[in-house]
Amino acid sequence: MKILKSFIVVSVLFFANKVLAFENNKKEIGGYFSTKIYEERHPVDNSFFMSQDGFMLGLVLNADNYEDDTYFGYKIRLGAGSVDYTSAGTGTMENIPDYQLEGTIYGGLPIEAESYRLTPFTGFGYRYLLNASGSRLSSNGYSGYDRESRYFYMPFGLNLETKPGNSGSYWELRGEYLFFLFGQQKSYLSDVSPAYPDVTNDQEEGSGIKLSAKYYLDPAFAIEGYMDYWDIADSKLDISGSFMEPRNTTSETGVRLIWKY
C-alpha cells in the first residue's frame, strides 16, 4: 500500500511539474485574417496622395527552441488578399490582388524567473509584397500596373511568457522594433504601355513595429492578436533621375489561430 501511495504522489508531482514548466521546443502552424491599410503621402507637403485598404488571408509557421540559455526561432507567413485603391487624382479601383511573403529568424538570451520567462532577441527578416493591378483601369480610366516591394530588416525585441497553469494555458506577449536595412520598389510601368520603362527605386530609410498577444488555451491551441506597422521614407530617384517612390505607411491588424504539431 505504501508503494502504491508513493507511486501516486510521484506521478502527480511529475505531471504537475510537466504542466507548469516552460516549453523549450515549439513548432506551430496556423492561419490568419487581417485588415490592411497602405497609404502614400506627397513628398513636398505631406498631403494625401493615394491609399489601398483591404484584407489578407494566409498561413503561418513558427518555431522556438530554448537550449543552454539561448533562444533560436523563426517565423514564416504567406498571405493573399484583396485591396481597394483610392487616389487624389486617378480615381478608384476595387479588388486588386495582393500577395505577401515574410520570413524572420531570431536569436536571443532568455531570462527565466519563477513565474515568467523574458527573452531579449534580435535577428534578420525579409518581406516581399506583390500588388497586382496591371491590366486594370481606374474609375477615371487610368491604367494600373504591378508593383513589387522588398524589405530587409533587423528586429530588436522582447518576448514575455507566463508559466503555464494546471490546464496548460498561458500568455505570450511580444514586441519588436524593426530596424530597416534596405528596401526596393519595382514598378512595372510597361503594364501601362510598352513605351514606358519599368522603374526600380531603392529605399534606405524607414522603420517598423510588430506587437502581438498570444493566449494558449491549452498546450496545443492558441489565439493571437497582432499589429504590424511600417513607415518608409521617400526613396532615392531611379537611374533615370525621373521617378521616386514617395513616403508610405502600412498598418496591418489581425487574428491568428495557432496549432502545435
Name of the CATH class: Mainly Beta
By DSSP (H or I, 4+ residues per run), the number of helices equals 1
Class from helix and strand fractions = mainly beta
Tell me the span between the first and last alpha carbons.
40 Å
Radius of gyration using CA atoms only:
23 Å
Shape category: elongated
Mean pLDDT: 91
CATH superfamily grouping: OPCA outer membrane adhesin/invasin
Q: Assembly state here?
A: single chain
How many DSSP E strands? 12
Q: What is the string of helix and strand elements?
A: HEEEEEEEEEEEE
Number of domains: 1
Return the CATH topology.
Answer: Lipocalin
CATH architecture: Beta Barrel
Strand order of the largest sheet: 1-2-3-4-6-7-8-10-11-12
- Unreliable stretches: 7-19
Explained architecture:
This protein is mainly β and 261 residues long. The protein has a single domain (2-260), classed as Lipocalin. Helix content is 7%, strand content 65%. It contains 1 helix and 12 strands. The chain has one helix spanning 2-20; strands at 25-41, 48-67, 70-87, 92-108, 111-112, 116-132, 146-162, 170-187, 199-203, 206-218, 221-232, 248-260. Strands 1-2-3-4-6-7-8-10-11-12 form a 10-stranded antiparallel β-barrel. The radius of gyration is 23 Å and the shape is elongated. The relative contact order is 0.17.
Task: Give the structure's gist in a few sentences.
By secondary structure, the chain is mainly β.
Per-chain topology:
Elements: H1 2-20, E1 25-41, E2 48-67, E3 70-87, E4 92-108, E5 111-112, E6 116-132, E7 146-162, E8 170-187, E9 199-203, E10 206-218, E11 221-232, E12 248-260
Antiparallel strand pairs: 1-2, 1-12, 2-3, 3-4, 4-6, 5-6, 6-7, 7-8, 8-9, 8-10, 10-11, 11-12
